[in-house]
Amino acid sequence: MAGLSCNGLSVVFTTPAGREIRVLQDLSLSVAEGEFVTIFGPNGCGKSTLLNVLLGHTKATSGTITFTTQDPRLGYIFQDYRSALMPWLTARDNVCFPLSVAGISEVDIQERFGAIITGLPIHINWLAYPYHLSGGQAQLVSILRSLIIEPEVLLLDEPFSALDYQTNLYMLRWLQQISMERRVTMVFVSHQIDEAIFLGDKVVLLTPGPATVSEEIRIDLQRPRGLSIMGSESFRERKEYILARFLKMVHESDSV
Amino acid sequence: MTIRWYYLREFLLRAWLPVGLLVGWHLLGASQWVSPLLLPSLSDTLSAGVGLIASGAIFSDLQSSAYRFVVGYGIAVIVGVPLGMLIGIHPVLHKSFEFVLEFGRATPVTAFFPLFLLLFGIHDPSKIAMVTVASVFIIILNSAYGVYYASRTRQRVGDLFRLSRLQRFVRITFWDALPQIVVGLRTALSLALIVVVVSEMLIGTEHGLGQRIFDAYTVSNSPELYALLLIIGVIGYFLNSGFVSVEKRVIHWKGY
Ligand SMILES: Nc1ncnc2c1ncn2[C@@H]1O[C@H](COP(=O)(O)OP(=O)(O)OP(=O)(O)O)[C@@H](O)[C@H]1O
Ligand SMILES: [Mg+2]
Are the beta carbons of B163 and A78 separated by less than 8 Å? Predict the structure, then answer.
């Protein structure tokens, strides 16, 4: 497993017209091995950009990223998960895609596939193509595709944003279970505060763009957390606290 | 509504106009309002058609035209698809070639006809060259567009799972480009058919559908002329609908 830390990350995009957009500003964050970190911030502040920088697809203008192991296996759930699936492959072949391109034998692939699809929160017809899957099913396929490579770090970009309430709850519980069983280091971007608290060992509050860490809030609720915890007093307290901090931060940035 | 009625209705909706046109043609012919030179009667036309087929006279024409069509179109496909995909890979190549390709496609190939005569003589090669040139630009353009506009997100999926450049091309880009490539192939198919017939009329030959039509015109054999038009129309129709049905099966994800 691998943890990571980034130090003083800044990202500046230059538009074709030559205008500079500062998206991340001196952002520092550390994620311990096996830790579940949720990132919470307003629309357009730079959350996806942050994940892309961690993934290495976007170059930081300045700052450093270090992983605790060298060249760790990374999984990534794209925000537009549907267009990240291969429409010409069945659900099953989408999940197995990374193994198949790595040249792993069909027998081994089938075995790992069988292992990974036990205990899923929703039913999937594995022979269906992505365009026949519901939002939740497509989302699950795209998560499984990253899990099957046994990632050391999993980066998830608002993966449950399109799901109905019930499916969302199932997926939350399932993801917590995955993280506990496999000890995968998780960085989970969310703009749902309940979800962020339920999942996170720590909630990282980002400022409106250019994003930097406004505050890190440790969520010391015991695991496994049942879904009913979201109605509990201790959960509400934390939610109220985070909400207050969030509103204060947004308000401050508005009045500047 | 039962399934059977549904199909009957669908069939009737598609069939009434063609059947109506044939009936109208027959009535018009019987009324003798129109000179049979301009519009021969349906029965004369059909018996001319039956005669062409029964006597076997048309088969050498079909064979010659089919040969030119298959060779000309085949060369265009074999050259055009790889070349187009290559051009689509890199923005610099794509931009460099765009004008020449659009120019080539927009210029009617028949305008090059004297040039082809000079270059290839009056026999098959010049007709085949016309078919190839007419098809190849459309095929190159569409193949290049397909690759050039391949989904960025899926390219990033390729990076995420550490595909080599070649793998990324074979396992992702090719499939992403395929629907657009096939659009090019289908458009070029219709055009190639037109150009075969036109080239045979323009350049002249011993056997060929275009030549046969021209002969029928010279001796004012209107029934045979119309019969040939019907035969070519039927060929074109089945060629195209055959192509479309294969396309639908292969590129099942298109339109989603
Ligand atoms: N490649 C790019 N070039 C220029 N600007 C970009 C680029 N990518 C992102 N941006 C800009 O950076 C800002 C942050 O984008 P980002 O997608 O990281 O936000 P986000 O926090 O993920 O938003 P959301 O909550 O809507 O997903 C936006 O203003 C966006 O327009
Ligand atoms: Mg985002």
Answer: no
